[in-house]
Amino acid sequence: MPIQTVFLDRDGVINVDSPDYIKCRDEFHPIPGSLAAIGRLTRGGLNIIVITNQSVINRGMVPLRELQAIHDKLHRLVAEHGGRITDIFFCPHRPDENCDCRKPKPGLIERARERYAIDLSRAVMVGDSAKDILAGKAAGCGRTVLVQTGNGPTAMRTLEEAGQRPDHIAADLAAAADWILAHGDA
Ligand SMILES: [Mg+2]
């Protein structure tokens, strides 16, 4: 069954993550090759949706309008590379709010599935953290890919402790996109 939908985590996958969070559009710096990778996935006919935890909203660190400005910048940069992001689903909650959408919970992916009638068995979740892979598996995504940018280097230990493994480990989003485009039919 060919892959149709690619769910992408944002921070540490598309852009350089920061322990101080990404608080404004000037702090949003693409990881080299990530925008071109989204362009290749788009040209490959894939539906691309960003799934991101943004507790900065309910921590009161980033106004909603600035998050929108960051995402406007992301859409613009991706378009400059021939790519298209269908939608961006974000969780605004803090961990202590115990919502159903903060990854590793599958709520954001389920919301995307409902809005766009996505066949999750034909979807892949790409992330740099264990919680991305766990959310993808909990939602029933057909594949999961862990990238080694961002939190990637420490994510495998957390996944092993949870008894889970990604289907593939890629150096970065560029390599993940190549794998998806080459192996999406397998
Ligand atoms: Mg991340």
TrEMBL record:
Looking at the UniProt record, the site noted as Stabilizes the phosphoryl group sits at T52, K103
The protein's matches in InterPro entries, at most eight in alphabetical order, are given as:
HAD-like_sf, HAD-SF_hydro_IIIA, HAD_sf, Heptose_bisP_phosphatase, Histidinol-phos
Query: Residue numbers for the site described as Contributes to substrate recognition?
Result: R102
At the top level of its lineage, which domain of life is listed? Bacteria
Annotated Pfam families:
Hydrolase_like (PF13242)
- List the pathway annotation: Nucleotide-sugar biosynthesis; ADP-L-glycero-beta-D-manno-heptose biosynthesis; ADP-L-glycero-beta-D-manno-heptose from D-glycero-beta-D-manno-heptose 7-phosphate: step 2/4
Q: Name a GO CC annotation attached to this entry.
A: cytoplasm
Q: Where in the cell is it found?
A: Cytoplasm
Q: Which residues form the active site?
A: D9, D11
EC number(s): the record gives: 3.1.3.-
Q: Which cofactor does it need?
A: Mg(2+); Zn(2+)
Q: Sorted alphabetically, which keywords does the UniProt record give?
A: Carbohydrate metabolism, Cytoplasm, Hydrolase, Magnesium, Metal-binding, Zinc
Listed under catalytic activity are: D-glycero-beta-D-manno-heptose 1,7-bisphosphate + H2O = D-glycero-beta-D-manno-heptose 1-phosphate + phosphate
GO biological process, alphabetically ordered: carbohydrate metabolic process
Q: Which positions are annotated as binding Mg(2+)?
A: D9, D11, D128
UniProt: Zn(2+) binding residues: C91, H93, C99, C101
For this protein, the record's Gene3D superfamilies field holds: HAD superfamily/HAD-like
Any one GO molecular function term: D-glycero-beta-D-manno-heptose 1,7-bisphosphate 7-phosphatase activity
* Family note: Belongs to the gmhB family.
Provide the assembly information: Monomer.
Q: What is this protein called?
A: D,D-heptose 1,7-bisphosphate phosphatase
